[in-house]
Design a protein that fits this description.
Elements: E1 6-10, H1 15-27, E2 31-38, H2 45-54, E3 60-64, H3 66-79, H4 96-109, E4 114-116, H5 125-136, E5 141-143, H6 145-148, H7 154-163, E6 179-182, E7 187-190, E8 220-227, E9 230-234, E10 237-238, H8 241-254, E11 259-265, E12 271-277, H9 279-293, H10 298-317, H11 323-332, E13 341-348, E14 351-358, H12 366-369, H13 380-394
Parallel strand pairs: 1-2, 1-4, 2-3, 4-5
Antiparallel strand pairs: 6-7, 7-12, 8-9, 8-13, 9-10, 11-12, 13-14
């Protein structure tokens, strides 16, 4: 179909986006450009290209964003200790703003009038993508097929795929797959039997973590080096952000670390159940909190703890580029230059134990805390301190 109009589709090459590609061609008088962001997911570039070409797509863009993703999205979020509803490390949430940003870059390059995504009409990702699109181009047209087409279910999608000769992948049990999202930071699995919270998650859905029962019977130790609040090395070796996270993913995954099974409250108000695997991120969260405990003052640490729930909610809801999130990030990073040192961890069958913290920081005073040394701490001040708070208690 020849047309001066262009649509840039966020395209994975999988079932859903292949159906969307065909549907866009059937319903819009426009050339569809396929865009794939490589953020560390399992990716087959040849298959993406061949699948798109089957539908006559001429322009296929695959952009490597892994370093940008880890350095400028994952690491800032980890510095904030962002955890949504107590357990979720926001692996899907943090990826969407970057994809949306780069998709708009491609749309501007090809002078496209519209962008499209494959997020469902009940999920959070439609909000995250579209807030990102709007931030970088408020005038761009957004096509969200799941909200406007007549395909109402997974069964409808499969029937549509069969009709148009679109390959239907199978899971390890030979059935249509679960809904899976993955990137360098995490993997999430939703749908099918997981939709009933009564059902336990089958072992075969886990992709990057061993079960604790099958992990090694001997513990593994790992030392993570932090500089200016970001991880820069493992066991004495310096790595770039991507390589560092890859190595920690392998270490943690082999030791059964990073699994979470949760029912979360979506932005739209629906509860959903999912299984998440964030092995390297779980290690980094533990290690970062440990290095901050010996490098930051009480006021800074407690201020970070107070803003963390709001920061996490903003990321979850798609407000990464908002003024509020950026303002909170500045608070998070105010003392990051002080967060330097080494944290040694022991990994064993799904558990993480802090073994040691090493830093040149003076925030932790062994003299003041020691039971053997009393000269550097004036105990007479304690009585005045307690008396003050006795009065305050009754006010």
């Amino acid at each position: 179909m020849k047309s001066d109009k262009r649509i840039v589709l966020a395209y994975s090459g999988g079932l859903d986006t292949s159906i969307i590609l065909k549907w866009l061609q059937e319903n819009y008088n426009a050339e569809v450009i396929c865009y794939t962001a490589d953020i560390g997911q399992e990716i087959n570039k040849r298959k993406i290209i061949s699948n798109a070409k089957k539908f006559g797509v001429k322009n296929i863009v695959i952009k490597d964003l892994k370093n940008d993703f880890v350095k400028n999205y994952v690491f800032p979020m980890l510095r904030a200790h962002a955890i949504y509803e107590g357990v979720y490390l926001l692996g899907t949430s943090i990826a969407r703003p970057l994809i949306a940003k780069d998709q708009i870059r491609v749309a501007k390059k090809f002078k496209a009038y519209a962008v499209s995504h494959g997020a469902t009409g009940k999920g959070n990702d439609q909000v995250r993508f579209e807030l990102g699109y709007h931030y970088f181009d408020p005038k761009i047209k957004i096509i969200a097929p799941w909200r406007i087409w007549k395909l109402k279910s997974r069964t409808d999608l499969i029937n549509y795929a069969k009709k148009h000769g679109i390959e239907i992948p199978k899971d390890k049990k030979g059935a249509p797959p679960f809904s899976v999202d993955d990137n360098l930071f995490h993997t999430s699995t939703e749908g099918k039997l997981l939709e009933n919270p009564k059902n336990s998650a089958p072992e075969f859905i886990y992709q990057r973590t061993k079960s604790p029962e099958k992990s090694p019977n001997k513990s593994t130790t790992v030392t993570i080096h932090f500089k200016n609040s970001d991880p820069v090395g493992i066991n004495g070796n310096i790595y770039n952000p991507v390589k560092l996270l890859e190595k920690l993913n392998t270490l943690a995954g082999n030791n059964g670390i990073g699994r979470v099974d949760l029912v979360e409250n979506r932005f739209l108000g629906i509860k959903s159940r999912g299984v998440y695997e964030t092995p390297g991120g779980t290690l980094l969260m533990h290690a970062h909190r440990a290095i901050e405990s010996v490098t930051l003052d009480k006021e800074t640490m407690h201020k970070k703890e107070k803003i963390m729930p709001r920061y996490s909610e903003l990321v979850y809801n798609g407000y990464w580029f908002s003024k509020e999130r950026i303002k909170l990030q500045k608070i998070v990073d105010l003392r990051k230059s002080k967060v330097n040192g080494l944290v040694k961890l022991k990994l064993y069958k799904g558990n993480i134990t802090i073994i040691s913290r090493v830093t040149k920081s003076s925030a932790y005073s062994q003299k003041k805390v020691s039971f053997e040394e009393n000269k550097s701490f004036n105990k007479s001040n304690v009585e005045r301190f307690i008396d003050y708070h006795k009065k305050k208690l009754r006010n």
